[in-house]
Design brief:
The structure is a homodimer of 248-residue chains. Chain A contains twelve helices and seven strands. With 248 residues, the first copy, chain A, is α/β, with parallel strands linked by helices. A seven-stranded mixed beta sheet of chain A has the order 3-4-2-5-1-6-7, sandwiched between helices. In chain A, β6, α8 and β7 form a beta-alpha-beta unit. The longest helix of chain A is centred in the middle third of the chain and has 20 residues. Chain A is globular and about 50 Å long. At the A-B interface, α2, α5, α8 and α10 of A face α2, α5, α8 and α10 of B. Bound molecules: adenosine-5'-triphosphate (2 copies) and magnesium ion (2 copies). The site of one magnesium ion has 5 residues of chain B, from α1.
Chain lengths: 248, 248
Amino acid sequence: APKIVSVINQKGGTGKTTTTINLGSALSKTGKKILLIDLDPQANLSYSLGVEEPQGTLADVFSGSKSLNQIILKQENLSIAPGSNELVDIEISLVTQPQRESFLKNILAEAKGYDFILIDCPPSLSLLTVNALAASDEVLIPLQMEVLTLQGLSQILNTVKQVQSAFNPKLKVKGIVVVMFDKRRKLSSEIQEYLEQNIAERIFKTRIRLNVKLAEAPSFGKSVLDYDPGSYGAQDYQALAAEFLNTK
Amino acid sequence: APKIVSVINQKGGTGKTTTTINLGSALSKTGKKILLIDLDPQANLSYSLGVEEPQGTLADVFSGSKSLNQIILKQENLSIAPGSNELVDIEISLVTQPQRESFLKNILAEAKGYDFILIDCPPSLSLLTVNALAASDEVLIPLQMEVLTLQGLSQILNTVKQVQSAFNPKLKVKGIVVVMFDKRRKLSSEIQEYLEQNIAERIFKTRIRLNVKLAEAPSFGKSVLDYDPGSYGAQDYQALAAEFLNTK
Ligand SMILES: Nc1ncnc2c1ncn2[C@@H]1O[C@H](COP(=O)(O)OP(=O)(O)OP(=O)(O)O)[C@@H](O)[C@H]1O
Ligand SMILES: Nc1ncnc2c1ncn2[C@@H]1O[C@H](COP(=O)(O)OP(=O)(O)OP(=O)(O)O)[C@@H](O)[C@H]1O
Ligand SMILES: [Mg+2]
Ligand SMILES: [Mg+2]
């Protein structure tokens, strides 16, 4: 069965989409079969991989008008289930449904033949993200070394615990990924030290450095590994993929 | 009557909170009476201004257990209505209420004596943000000059038009603020040129530059104008405040 991993952080702009795409791409280049789920109404992941007007999206699957396999788009070892703005209405309509946290879990039960399914979540801890957590084996938390992103961390960990005890005992935090790391900023290193001394969760050794290539790749509809394989961005996500595969 | 301004962008980490705080602070230092509304369940604005365990929050006002004036905290000319994580449940419960977009408008009708009310919105275009837009006279859109933030812009402008025609004919976009501007990145200037040639909305002449002081100020519970008045961050937000007051 595929291992299902949610990429979450309710703080905005913390590299969730960039990490889901590039970790997914790096894993697929090691031969793993990867499915990326774009669970964000902004559909940044879909756009960033060149998917602009998909025939079907996750919203169609949630509403029952299409099956998961009908909407999946394949790009070599990397498959994508596109998102769209209709996920806003889907989230609203889920609120009043019985078993409203289990919809995505049931949808992903249809996904066959993948080694990993990575779920790109919106910047919130509301019902769509809860669906992702209820469906997942593991959680990845990309974190910028800035004051405000730290402040949201305890809330994220709290939500994970709540979903774990209410719906999904096997759920665990695989680790925190330090992203957009700027070594010139003294504040960044201080915050990372503080983190390491104050939390129990794993922090990956691989840090994703600030690299303009990561911000440019989306305008070419490619992962950074396809756009600029020699860049620091590509190197860092390859290193993260290796560490990801080597840690329990 | 106070002029009510929503600061919106469904893309995460685009400087909404940083702009609401520092534009608000700069305006208050010109003598204007300013009320900041923290409409984000993450409550970053509240935390960034040193508000950690408020007696009452906006969630209490939405649920009717407190009045707006009971929760407002005053810091010289700058007043704050704190947010909290309970806004997640508030948003869920609003969904089934009649007139679900007008709750904030009715709440803000109680706000007396302010020149401007600035509303910090969450990274979404869902019901809380719709409430802000339905209550507002004007909209400010902070935008990073990056591919993905551009991609969300038409969606933002679309939502503004929808709220305008459905609930609030007087609503207009005051302007787009270029934030976190990094002049070393060629991509940033190219994106701004593209913007200027392709949209009708005003783009403020003042650009907020990338400045580490803006990221540091929250850990001291102050606006950047109080934390480091000589910094580029302080200068830029002061210039933005002047331009804001001088434009219709
Ligand atoms: N290491 C990096 N170096 C440079 N730019 C980066 C890096 N990681 C991400 N970015 C850029 O920062 C912006 C925010 O990243 P991204 O969209 O991945 O965050 P997010 O957490 O998915 O945001 P949201 O909360 O809106 O979903 C994007 O424009 C992205 O291209
Ligand atoms: N001009 C700037 N220079 C340097 N850092 C900045 C600047 N503007 C904002 N930041 C930092 O970038 C991060 C994101 O900014 P901010 O929290 O204001 O965005 P936001 O749009 O409110 O995010 P969210 O979508 O989560 O509400 C914060 O850590 C903030 O301190
Ligand atoms: Mg994203
Ligand atoms: Mg914010």
